Amino acid sequence: MQTLATEPRLRRGASVRGPEFRFVPEVRAADLARAGGFGRRSGPVLVKGAVTAWPAWERWSFESLAGLRKPDGSEAVARFITGVVEQGATREQFDAPVGPYLRDLSRAAERFAGDRPAGGLLPARRRAEVAPGDGFHLDWGHLGTFEPDRVYLSQWEILREFPELRRDFAIRDLWPGRRLTWEYVFVGPANTVTGFHFDFPDNWFCQVRGTKEVLLVTPEQSHLMCPSRKFDWGATLSAIDITRPGAQPEWASFERVNGLYARVEAGDALFIPKGTWHAVVALEPSVSLAVFGLTPWEVAWNGGRAELKRLLHNLGLYRRGDCACHRAR
Questions:
Q1: In what order do the strands lie in the sheet with 202-209?
Q2: In angstroms, rounded to a whole number, what is the distance separating the alpha carbons of residues 48 and 28?
Q3: CA distance 275 to 280
Q4: Rounded CA separation 305/314 (Å)
Q5: pLDDT digits (tens, 9 = 90+) for 142-155
Q6: What CA–CA distance (Å, rounded) separates 87 from 237?
Q7: Model pTM score
């Protein structure tokens, strides 16, 4: 099972300018608490240090997750994906025990111990030169230094399988109010890429281990994001493939957006409002928890429509063969 990086490629895309970005607004978790909590928000916000106050910060290591066992003593089994599923042809997906994969990631993570990654789409040196509020462009050549073909443990419903772990997150401290939530864990090596898409629920993206770069585009710019017909339950996908910078006709439209950038480090939580396009690039072996929330009205309206589409898709009546959940034939 592949977890470690292969030899780097040439920096394809290094000369691509791309759209202009600005930093997502940030707030320290302690300052947010003093201000009375999260409240009602319509835009993304990065809460620095939110996860460090939760038990998961101490308990959720690669090794501890590898040691999880079901009541009968058997290992946890989950669905793995290969490469980017949001754009292009969907590749191999398979079910396998998570323990060996997580132990491999633990060994890979030791190479990053104590050092924050300096590279990425916005390298540390360039990031230090950007003043608050200024626009900047990304180093798209970073995506040409590796093959986007990592095996990724995506959307693991760990809290449903091991409900006792739910106590390790205090998401209600950030997100009070009446809503139903769905939680998925994403675990993978450095250089995993999640392509551009948007979800119909709001999402708290909680980073437990590793660092990820998140690119965001607000809903009013959807006409520039080239929505595709590829099916993914609960999400709308873009035809813009960030692993092929400058190599698509859709890239000309993408260069017109005004984007937002967040560097989500271990211990941070990023609020991604519903309808916000986002793509994710991992700089280190990572563990992330995405908490999707819907009000009762949203469950009845949006949730009902999404479930109907999934039912028709599984029956082969809606976009079967062009989806993120089945390998392309």
A1: 26-28, 45-48, 269-272, 202-209, 286-294, 180-188, 151-156, 77-82, 93-97
A2: 5
A3: 16
A4: 14
A5: 999 999 999 999 98
A6: 8
A7: 0.91
